[in-house]
Amino acid sequence: SSPIGKGDPVFLAVRPEKLALSGKKPATGLNALKGRIIADTYLGDRRQYLVKIDGAERPLTISLQNTGGNTQEALGGEVWVSWKPELGRLLTR
User: Fold this and answer.
1) Residues 49, 39: contact at Cβ < 8 Å?
2) Could you count the other beta carbons within 10 Å of the beta carbon of residue 60?
């Protein structure tokens, strides 16, 4: 692959199961975006959330394993979506 040049448009990709969801702003050292839950779907072994981020064209999909310890955030509630920097991938197309 060719290197990304200054000013080149890029996309950030993070797998849905690598995203964390919290009602509180996460600790420093994590990438984080504040948003609002617009959909919550129970899928047996996991829950899938759609989170609307201000200024984003599309909602983010977050997939959390049902471990019994997950706190359920309320539909319409404000949340923080976070991920470790090493889990993101920059894509040019």
Assistant:
1) yes
2) 17
Residues in Cβ contact with 55 at an 8 Å cutoff, skipping those fewer than 6 apart: none
Shortest CA distance to 65 belongs to which of 32, 21, 29?
21
The pair of structure tokens assigned to 28 is 């420093």
Quote the pLDDT of residue 33.
92
Cα 90 to Cα 59, 77, 87, distances in angstroms: 18, 29, 10
**How far apart, in whole angstroms, are the C-alpha atoms of residue 14 and residue 81?**
11
28-61 pLDDT, tens digit per residue, is 777 999 999 999 888 888 889 999 998 899 999 9
Tokens read off for 93: 């197309």
CA–CA dist 46, 64 (Å, integer) = 5
CA 57 to each of CA 4, 7, 20, 67, 79: distance values in angstroms, whole numbers, following the listed order: 23, 20, 20, 31, 18
